[in-house]
Each structure stands twice: as structure tokens, then as C-alpha cells.
Amino acid sequence: MEASLVFPGFLMFTLVCIFFCIVIFQIGTANFAAQKAASELAYIWNNSHKDLETGDFGKANYTGLPAGDGLYWRITDSGVLKIFGLNGFPGSSSHEGDKKDKVATEYNGAIKIDLGDIQYESILINSEVRVKAKSSLYVPGFISKLVGSEVVGTSSRTVTDTPELIRTFNFSKYLWSEFGFDKKVSRAIESIKGFFGK
């Protein structure tokens, strides 16, 4: 008699714990997929021909060569021209969609990343990609009413582009020396030192 009263409650508690573990596992899996996809996308961002996992690309696909991305792809793909209300130069092609499409094609199974779930944002000195991964939950209806029918994992990564960083630094250095900012700064430092008597 006591077992017939306790056992159903114990069974329900066990099932709820199992389904809870499934939901937690799916959330972790979606987050892992989003982090991996964001890392891969940030890594291949400086060349749309790179392999998503290894980063390999052929010699013919070097930046600036006809089969590559073109020498000035950063002007259109980084969104710099949007500051001036322009989307790009006439005849210029953007490779942003190609890079996003690689990720959307790779993650198109149980865990899904749609093209609309991949965002790229560039603010001159900082660029980052944001990825949202979705995973369907295969749980009974009463559980899906509580937690929903899918879980979402999000991640963002900073896009590092070493050649662009070097060019920007060299251009800044050139402007600094050309317009004499270094002399003005050194005079200001000397003035501050003189004020404090050092």
C-alpha cells in the first residue's frame, strides 16, 4: 500500500530529473556550437576561401589575386563606407555572405545556425561576429510547455586581422610624423614636467 502511493511520485520525480538533464545538455551543446562557429568564422574572416576547420586556402586565393578576395575587400566588407551612407563602390563585390554561408552550411543538422543568426559588426577599430545556434528539444509536451520547443546558444568573437592592424598602425604613424603631433605631445609632456618641477 505504501509502495503504491510512494512509487508513482518517485517515478515522476525521476523522469522530471532526466528531462531536466536533457534540457541542460541541449543548452550546453547549443552554446558550444555557437562558440565554435563564432571562433571559426572570426578566424576565416580575412579570406573567404579559407577552410572553416583548418584555415587552408590555395595560393591562387591570396588576397589581391584575381581568384582571391580582391585587394580592397575590407572597404566593402568591414562596413566602413556605411558611415558615409554608402554600401560599396560600383562593381565591387562583398564576400561577407560567402563567409556566413560557410558556417550556415556546416551547422545545418540537429543544431542549426541560419544565415539570419550570423551578424557582423565593425566599428573601425573593433570588429566582431555574433552567432546564434538553435537546437530542437525532443521532450514530452508538458516539458516543452515549460521550457519551449528549442534552446538557443549565442556567442561572439573579435575578428583579428593582422595585416589590417599593421597597415592602420603604419598609416597612423605616418600621419603622426607628417603633421608633427609627436613634437606637440613632447612639448606638452615637457610643460607638465616643468609645472611639477621634474
Report on this model:
- The termini are far apart.
- The protein has helices at 2-44, 73-77, 96-106, 141-147, 162-178, 181-195, and strands at 111-112, 118-123, 126-136, 150-158.
- The protein has two domains: 2-160, no CATH class; 161-198, no CATH class.
- The chain is elongated.
- A hairpin with a 2-residue loop joins strand 2 (118-123) and strand 3 (126-136).
- Strands 1, 2, 3 and 4 form a four-stranded antiparallel beta sheet that branches.
- The chain is built from six helices and four strands, in the order H-H-H-E-E-E-H-E-H-H.
- It is of the alpha+beta class and 198 residues long.
- Helix content is 49%, strand content 14%.
Counting DSSP H or I runs of 4 or more residues, the number of helices is: 6
Summarize the helix and strand pattern as letters: HHHEEEHEHH
- The coarse overall form would be elongated
Low-confidence stretches: none
Q: What is the count of β-strands? A: 4
Strand content: 5-15%
Spatial extent as radius of gyration: 26 Å
Straight-line distance between termini? 92 Å
Largest sheet: 4 strands, antiparallel
Oligomer: single chain
The number of domains: 2
In percent, how helical is the residue content?
40-55%
* Class by alpha and beta content: alpha+beta
Let me know the average pLDDT.
Answer: 79
